[in-house]
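Standup notes, structure subgroup. Blocker cleared on the magnesium ion input:
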Amino acid sequence: NIKGALFDLDGVLVDTAKYHYLAWKELADQWGFEFTEADNERLKGVSRMRSLEIVLEVGGISISEEEKLAKAEQKNERYLEYIRRMDASELLPGAKDYLYRLKERGVRIALGSASKNAAFILEKVGIADLFDAVVDGTKVAKAKPDPEVFLLGCRELGLKPDECAVFEDAEAGVAAAIAAGMYVVGIGSPANLGAANRVVGGLDELAG
Ligand code: B16
Ligand code: MG
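Run returned:
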């Protein structure tokens, strides 16, 4: 039976992809090329620097490593302006109810996100207190599909991988959870998350 639940952030608990998109799009506008929402799909679950590489690839632009750091910083400043305004209304349907339900059952809860802003976002939407561990982009070196983020989360909960379930919306995240030896619930469509043990449209389907 499951003793620990590890949650991805963007796409599972909140939809921050729209803010990442707006912030990256501003950079693309300055460079003078179009960055579409379809392009943005490629950034989901991917680290900030890797996201920048993808944006540059879409625009056919090459810049120095130094400029890359400056642009990533500029993007994050804009992104922070959006997430600073977030509140509980931005929690995805069922997210809070499901977290409470797990708490009631004594399941330990961890975050497993690529974002370096994850702790701040949990505070903004008012669910930080529900987490027994927060593993985010400030703690891990290897990005999903590497299992590091989930293995560290499970260790911080004091559990073994086969005692944990992962909730993930990105293909790379599902792959990371499988590689970690955990039960995986895909949040989204079986079309791209078919590798998961189970796929649901959203946490509201589990919280009800
Ligand atoms: P930051 P997740 C990921 O969050 C986002 O899906 C991805 O688009 C973003 O680039 C990444 O966090 C890094 O975010 O710039 O805030 O460090 O899905 O792993 O919770
Ligand atoms: Mg995600």
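Discussed briefly. The pocket of 1,6-di-O-phosphono-beta-D-glucopyranose (ligand 1) is lined by residues 8-11, 20, 43-48, 51, 76, 113-117, 137 (CB under 6 Å).
Next: hand off to the docking folks.
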